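Exercise: predict the structure of this protein bound to manganese (II) ion.
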Amino acid sequence: ESESCSSGSLSSLSVDTQSLQRQIEELSSFSDSPAPSVTRILYSKKDVLARSYVKKLMQLAGLSIREDVVGNIFGKWEGFNSELAGVATGSHVDAIPYSGKYDGVVGVLGAIEAINVLRRSDFRPERSLEIIFFTSEEPTRFGISCLGSRLLAGSEPLVSALKNTVDSHDISFFEAARSAGYAQDQDDLTSVFLKKGFYSAFVELHIEQGPILEQEGISIGVVTAIAAPASIKVDFEGNGGHAGAVLMPQRNDAGLAAAELALAVEQHVLESGSIDTVGTVGILDLHPGAINSIPSKSHLEIDTRDIDETRRNNVIEKIHQSAVKITKNRKVQLSEFKIVNQDPPAASDESIIKAMEDASKELNLTHKLMISRAYHDSLFMARVSPMGMIFIPCYKGYSHKPEEFASIEDIANGVKVLALTLAKLSLG
Ligand code: HGY
Ligand code: MN
Ligand code: MN
Ligand code: MN
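Solution:
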């Protein structure tokens, strides 16, 4: 079939918005926090329920399903030239505590609906189309972001790290994976690695998680690059003691050391000279956590990012220097300064950018080239396949909180652009 006739006949794509909306609501009910928030942690009971819910939708869409040892789930539509490398799409459904119902979900349920849209248009893919449900994109349980896509991208350091990784309840990664029905007989995680060239393209549909598309009234974001994320774990220790009896000169307060470092993160980020440098301290625990006991331990987790990797690394270096300076001034110990991940940014593939732009134009949808400040599984898929991302607007750019919202019209636009882009790439 020639590309023009297929994409030409595809311009009248119809999305079943009613069932897609219902699926988004039903999926959001698998949550460990009350509606409208969503909390869905890797390998939890709610995560397992969400997995079976999505697998059922994949089956209904006529996809053949397989799962790898850590629970990346694949739904495949065999192409008529299936010996060619396939085209993949997908996202995640795990959700950080008290977050929203669209982050990741739009790229999984929307991908399944995109397949249904293509089937309804009598399209037949040349290259197989495969949906990937990444096992865990959020760092919540084990402190490692994009765990599934890092392994798919062949991360040896992650394979060894997972051998002795435990969550905050001291449950090991493998124990947790087994409780969800994965990693049964083998703990050789290299079986997850994708062979280079396994996919000819990977495209992810996602809410923007920023305000630009909504503010500018643009329907589609065509992502050109994904910013470089990094996370750091820091522990300070002091002598603690009675909050009334110990005089100030005798104190080495681990809590105040943490507070000073948190403000240092902000200062180094603001000094970077670019609006693209960001940083925050999203986790700050004090021990023993009693109002009248001087903190003897503090634990911080720092998230800092930039579209420019060198600038981001300079900030990390300065944060480390501040941590050391604080230990000297406050006579506390720096018992841990661990860079958990320090990833490079990723650029989208030019031909995929063109396919997404052409699809938006053919569908008469306004679009804008833009960077993604949030990271995604696409950041790691870009290491093993040409990558692209499609953004849709979300309410005031809200994300990672219960007010997160995307209209079904915007979601349907994203699904159509994804469907047409997949069609183009699968005939390529
Ligand atoms: O944090 C992120 O950028 C992603 O949304 N998990
Ligand atoms: Mn997220
Ligand atoms: Mn996400
Ligand atoms: Mn620690």
